[in-house]
Amino acid sequence: MEYRLLCQLASEPTRVFTRNELMSAVWGFTSGRTRTLDSHCSRLRAKLATDTCPLVLNLWGIGYRLIDGGIASDASPVSARGQAARDGS
User: Fold this and answer.
1) Which domain holds residue 30?
2) pTM, whole model, 2 decimals?
3) What is the residue-wise DSSP string for 25-79?
4) Nearest to residue 45, comparing CAs of 83, 22, 28, 37?
5) What is the pLDDT of residues 57-83, one digit of tens each?
6) Domain at 66, CATH number
7) Is the pLDDT confidence value at 8 over 90?
8) Cβ neighbours of 72 (radius 10 Å)
9) What angle do CA 48, 13, 52 make, to 5 degrees?
């Protein structure tokens, strides 16, 4: 399932996919409370992350996307908050 999730994200690397879009495309359903997507994205992050940034970005309240080129150059509020938390700011 991680591979299917990665393929879906890679199909449009700069697009933000909503949770429902990813659940429907990868698992074929959108209803119900499940942490399946979060768990798979977390495992993908762990496998694909570099020392400087994750390649799978969670945009809180919106969805997930890949970071284009592996560089967080978009300065999105989520990535900035996450970096500030890691830096202790």
Assistant:
1) 2-87
2) 0.67
3) IIIS---S---HHHHHHHHHHHHH--SS--SEEEETTTEEEEPGGG---S--HHH
4) 37
5) 888 888 888 886 544 444 343 443 444
6) 1.10.10.10
7) yes
8) 19
9) 40
